[in-house]
């Protein structure tokens, strides 16, 4: 299994939430602290990818902060800056709007790049291609690139997109060899909220609070 750098994506404006999503509390911890804990279970080291303006607010985590090289350009810029600095070839990224992203789910994705030979997947011609990224797909069929694994070789595509002011992560995926990992195949974690639960609005936060306070599903009762 290759080593991974953990990237905690936590810049941006949280416009829809109206306040910093990363600092919202869920189950007695801030979202960013929850995710830092999960990443620490699977990554060789974790960095916070944020803008200059978030530096102070996240200092309490005592993690290295990687500041966007393209400020104000969204998640793609955070991913780009952190991959650029990452000491490992592969990184695992989790965004602060996915508060239930779990180490178990990250391990499940990592299984797909466990052995170097498995980095090669046959395409429709039967040729073997080298995987550049592994991204998750929710049960509703939504691709979620901000819980995924990225190899440093994607930097060229990311850099070109940022230079060309094309800021959509999904658009970059089109230029990469991507392995899509369905949430549906994930059976490894404790029952609970979906690791791909997406939290962007106050309503999403209210629903997330209910999810953490819901009693654990115990089928033995
Ligand atoms: N490093 C970095 N991370 C970002 C940036 N913009 C967004 N993110 C992170 O990427 C994830 C997805 O962000 P979005 O929901 O698309 O954007 P947002 O700015 O957080 O929220 P909205 O303003 O409501 O769109 C979140 O975890 C953000 O913390 C950015 O410019 N730099």
Automatic annotation (TrEMBL):
Its EC number is 2.7.7.77. It catalyses: Mo-molybdopterin + GTP + H(+) = Mo-molybdopterin guanine dinucleotide + diphosphate. Keywords: Cytoplasm, GTP-binding, Magnesium, Metal-binding, Molybdenum cofactor biosynthesis, Nucleotide-binding, Transferase. Pfam families: NTP_transf_3. Its cofactor is Mg(2+). One of its GO terms (cellular component) is cytoplasm. It comes from the Bacteria. GO terms for molecular function: GTP binding; metal ion binding; molybdenum cofactor guanylyltransferase activity. The keyword Metal-binding applies. It is an enzyme of class 2 (transferase). The N-terminal domain determines nucleotide recognition and specific binding, while the C-terminal domain determines the specific binding to the target protein. GTP binds at residues 9-11, 21, 68, 97. It comes from Paenibacillus graminis. Transfers a GMP moiety from GTP to Mo-molybdopterin (Mo-MPT) cofactor (Moco or molybdenum cofactor) to form Mo-molybdopterin guanine dinucleotide (Mo-MGD) cofactor. It is found in: Cytoplasm. InterPro entries: MobA-like_NTP_Trfase (IPR025877), Molybde_CF_guanTrfase (IPR013482), Nucleotide-diphossugar_trans (IPR029044). This is Probable molybdenum cofactor guanylyltransferase. Mg(2+) binds at residue 97. Gene3D superfamilies: Spore Coat Polysaccharide Biosynthesis Protein SpsA, Chain A (3.90.550.10). The keyword Metal-binding applies. One of its GO terms (biological process) is Mo-molybdopterin cofactor biosynthetic process. Belongs to the MobA family. Residues 6-166 form the MobA-like NTP transferase domain.
